[in-house]
Automatic annotation (TrEMBL):
ATP binds at residues 75-82. One of its GO terms (molecular function) is ATP binding. The lineage of its organism: Eukaryota, Metazoa, Spiralia, Lophotrochozoa, Mollusca. Pfam families: DUF4472, Kinesin. It comes from Potamilus streckersoni. GO terms for cellular component: cytoplasm. This is Kinesin motor domain-containing protein. Residues 8-325 form the Kinesin motor domain. Transmembrane segments: none annotated. Residues 374-401, 430-503, 607-676, 786-813 form a coiled coil.
Length: 918
């Protein structure tokens, strides 16, 4: 039995033309061929439901009957393979969810459990899901963890054949659980991206649905397996295998190359005595039965409307070879299983005797692949060393830049702190607004929940009313049919009554005629008898003798005739004598009313036949109502839990904001204490300068030396105080920079999510006018990104540079340098030195006071400017945030999601489906 092949062309995307040559049920890359004939080709309007009904449902029937079946989904990357298997969300199911729904519905149905000739009992369905990528097997049903050894190995036993060791077997109870486990397993597939594309383009996904079910009186269960395989992208078949190994390594495309070799060998040798090597790849080892073994296999080739002709030619050639592969499926009853197990045991024993096995299948390779791997690893190590060196150089340069920035003395003083206070106030306002928003959202959710419950109650009432309506319609229809039949019988009886009445009247008239005739005849007979008697008397008188005995007495004869006439006239035929007997009446009633009894018996039979269905339906409705009540209670409890968690989260956020405010308050306090300390030091220096100026003027080297040390110590304390303040401001600036970077990342993620939503809407064919503005309308300019803080820091840096240059010019002007201060000895030019020191102190005091006054004035003005900028920023944030929310909600509604990001309620879809059915 060869492998069947179905074609499916994906719908075109935007700006995607079609270059495939399609003629009827065949496809080619060029008009001159070669062509590939499909069993059936689905164009762009073909859906997954059409494929399932026409080609997968009969496979499911064979699977339930005990055959191994397989569905191979292949094609180029991006041709819709995954969509064919999984579908799109819960609105457009793929083949696998449809298989689960149909399988469990058929197993639960009576026509597959009771009405069949061979009774099926105790069905058990198990699910296995694996991914083969880079010759590594990953269990998709196992929750990933950080432990090592996450990849599985292959094993071979007489009972199971080639299988995955320690794989997860998930026992399925219903279709909902099966679909959930299947989608969770798909989400665990490898999502990394290499230099050669995403991992899913080079990975194969295997789904095994095992069915164990007992047939009839056989105690041994029949085992069947439904395998769904999503093959890697076939676009690499057009490349040279040796070139692929050199470019990508020995393992990345090994599965596809080995699969092509196995299919080529099987297509060229269709006889059952063939010997095919499946050991070149783990994928081919796992597909030993599906390709050329005990399995009914059907393939689905997914095609893109626009494809490279060379790639399409390679794909069509591979598909042609697949259709030439011959399988040998049998029913997997206990006898076939035992026979196959016996042959496998013999093969394994022969391998062990010949020294071939068993060997770890995951480690079978050749020397060329090992050398190629070593060479690839060496190249990778060199590349990583170069990258490491470049990163080290970059880190050193960044560290030097960071050191330069840290060493740069900046005075962010009160401006940054005031801004932080304003920021805290704004944060507090935002927290209050968020609390209010959460309250409003909770009220909206409660209202939504109540409305949903009302809708569900109304839907249940509608369903009950619909069921009652159907019941009444059915009763009315039966009554109408019965009334029609009774009316027909009444008409028949009326016709028969008219006929009988007419016959009766005719007979009465005939009877009256006969009675009158008899009376006339009686009168005439009496007249004749009287005449005869008179004649006889005359004869006797003429004879004048005794009447003879032979003639008789005339009077006696007249009396006899009169008596006879009276008797005949008195015996009139009565109406009761004309009517039929009771037996005839009963036979007529039985003939007339037999249909009524037959109809009553038919009604009783229908009532008994559908009574169980009605009771079962009522029981099912009660069960569903109970489940609905439980689901409502559970949803209500979860809503309460969510509300409690939101309240706790709001409280925690409030505590966090209070701690931040307290921390900022302490920072302000430390700043004030530092400023007080610095002002005191400045005052001390001024007092010392005044004391020196107003002193006796007698030189005293010892006192001057101690005074100089004291002044140096105070200057050092001032320097340390400024340095501590600088470190504090540097730390605050670093935190602000980190916060700004996080905000920028979130802003970029928001733009990416908005872009993805627009692309999804475009793929679904939504009008661009309904999707809102483009993403470039939401991008911030450089002036908006550079906040007022960064501008203020840049300005302060420039002022620091100018002050340093002024300080250097003043030192040069007064002839003071660092070398002069170091070489100065006690007693040398003391008066000039102290005069210069006093002059510098006075200038320092005056300049400091002037600078502080200027700084205070400037900071106050900048504070007003920052307040205005903050108000503008807040307005900008409110406007753009509202726009973002509106656009996101609009796009979610277009995609079929609600405002919270979840799927639209199932009841709405059920209502729509019911409306469509009715």
């Amino acid at each position: 039995m060869n492998i069947d092949l179905i074609g499916k062309i994906r719908p075109s995307l935007r700006a995607e033309a079609e270059n495939i040559v399609v003629e009827g049920q065949r496809v080619a890359a060029h008009p001159r061929g070669p062509y590939l004939n499909f069993q059936q080709l689905y164009r762009k309007d073909g859906t997954n439901l059409d494929v399932y009904r026409n080609h997968v449902e009969n496979l499911l029937d064979l699977y339930i009957a005990g055959f191994n079946v397989c569905l191979l989904v292949m094609g180029e990357s991006g041709s819709g393979k995954t969509y064919t298997i999984t579908g799109e969300g819960t609105t457009k199911n793929g083949l696998v969810p449809m298989i689960f729904d149909a399988l469990f519905s058929k197993l639960a149905g009576e026509r597959y459990m009771q009405d069949t000739k061979v009774r099926r009992q105790n069905p058990q369905v198990e699910l296995e899901m694996y991914e083969v990528y880079n010759e590594l097997i990953k269990d998709l049903l196992q929750v990933p963890s950080g432990a090592t050894g996450a990849f599985l190995e292959l094993g071979e036993t007489a009972e199971k054949g080639v299988h995955v060791k320690n794989g997860t077997h998930m026992l399925l109870k219903d279709a909902a659980q099966a679909t959930t486990e299947f989608r969770q397993g798909l989400n665990r597939r490898t999502e990394s991206t290499t230099d050669y594309g995403p991992a899913q383009h080079n990975a194969a996904t295997l789904i095994h649905i095992d069915l164990n079910m007992t047939f009839g009186e056989n105690p041994q269960p029949t085992k069947a397996c439904f395998t769904i395989v999503e093959l890697p992208g076939l676009e690499k078949l057009s490349d040279d295998p040796n070139h692929l190994r050199q470019k990508e390594g020995p393992a990345l495309s090994k599965a596809l190359i080995a699969l092509n070799q196995v299919v080529t060998s099987l297509s060229s040798n269709p006889f059952p005595d063939r010997v095919i090597s499946y050991g070149d790849s783990k994928l081919t080892q796992l597909l030993r039965e599906e390709l050329g073994g005990n399995c009914k296999t059907r393939g689905i080739l997914c095609l893109k409307p626009q494809i490279d002709p060379a790639v399409l030619t390679s794909v069509l050639q591979f598909s042609t070879r697949v259709t030439q592969v011959k399988n040998f499926p049998v029913v997997n009853d206990s006898f076939a299983q035992h026979l196959i197990t016996q042959y496998r045991a013999q093969i394994i024993d022969l391998r062990q005797q010949s020294g071939i096995g068993p060997a770890p299948m995951a480690r079978v390779t050749n020397v060329g692949d090992i050398k190629e791997t070593i060479r690839q690893l060496e190249t990778e190590n060199l590349r990583l060393l170069d990258d490491n060196e470049r990163l080290r150089n970059r880190i050193e340069s960044m560290q030097s830049k960071f050191g330069n920035i840290a060493n740069t003395k900046t005075d962010l003083s009160q401006q940054l702190l005031l801004t932080e206070e304003e920021k805290l106030k704004i944060s507090q306002s935002l927290v209050e607004m968020q609390i209010e928003n959460n309250k409003i959202r909770e009220e909206a959710e409660a209202t939504k929940f109540e409305l949903t419950n009302k809708i569900l109650i109304l839907e249940n009432e509608l369903m009950e009313a619909q069921a009652e309506k159907d019941k009444n319609s059915k009763t009315a229809r039966n009554a109408k049919d019965r009334l029609t039949e009774m009316e027909k019988d009444r008409k028949d009886l009326a016709d028969e009554y008219v006929v009988l009445k007419t016959n009766y009247l005719a007979m009465v008239r005939e009877h009256e005629k006969e009675t009158k005739r008899n009376e006339d005849l009686s009168v005439e007979l009496l007249n004749l008898v009287n005449a005869k008697a008179a004649l006889m008397k005359q004869i006797n008188a003429m004879v004048d003798g005794e009447p003879s005995a032979s003639m008789g007495d005339p009077d006696a004869e007249v009396s006899r005739v009169k008596a006879l006439v009276m008797q005949n006239s008195s015996r009139k035929i009565r109406t009761e004598d004309i009517t039929g007997t009771d037996k005839d009446r009963e036979s007529v009633e039985k003939a007339l009313f037999a249909n009524r009894k037959r109809f009553e018996g038919e009604m009783d039979r229908i009532r008994k036949e559908h009574g169980d269905d009605r009771n079962r339906l009522e029981t099912k409705v009660e069960t569903m109502q109970k489940e609905l009540t439980d689901a409502r209670n559970l949803a209500r409890e979860r809503q309460h839990k969510i509300a409690e968690l939101n309240a706790a989260l709001i409280m925690v956020r409030g505590d966090k904001e209070q701690l931040e405010m307290q921390f900022n308050r302490l920072q302000h306090k430390v700043k004030d204490i530092g400023e007080d300390f610095r002002s005191r030091l400045v005052k001390y220096v001024e007092d010392i300068s005044e004391y020196v100026d107003k002193g006796s003027g007698v030189p005293d080297a010892k006192r001057e030396k101690r005074l100089r040390q004291y002044v140096d110590q105070m200057l050092k304390d001032m320097t340390m105080s400024h340095k501590e303040r600088e470190e504090q401001l540097s730390h605050a600036a670093q935190q602000y920079r980190d916060a700004k970077r996080d905000i920028a990342h979130k802003y970029e993620e928001l733009l990416v999510a908005y872009r993805n939503l627009r692309l999804t809407c475009e793929m679904r064919g939504i009008d661009p006018v309904d999707m809102g503005p483009d993403e470039h309308h939401f991008k911030l300019s450089d002036q908006e990104i550079n906040s007022a803080h960064l501008k203020e820091i840049s300005r302060l840096k420039n002022e620091l540079t100018s002050l340093r240059s002024e300080l250097d010019s003043i030192k040069l002007k007064f002839g003071i340098g660092d070398d002069d201060l170091k070489n100065l000895k006690p007693g040398e030019k003391s008066l000039e030195t102290w005069a210069a020191v006093r002059k510098q102190l006075r200038e320092f005091t005056l300049n400091t006071q002037q600078q502080l006054e200027d700084e205070r004035t400037r900071l106050m003005s900048e504070n007003e400017v920052l307040k205005e900028q903050l108000r503008e920023s807040q307005n900008y944030i409110d406007i753009h945030l509202a726009r973002y929310k509106q656009e996101v909600v609009k796009l979610r509604r277009l995609l079929g999601y609600d405002e919270d990001g979840g799927v639209v309620a199932v009841t709405d879809r059920n209502t729509k489906s019911k409306n469509r059915r009715h």
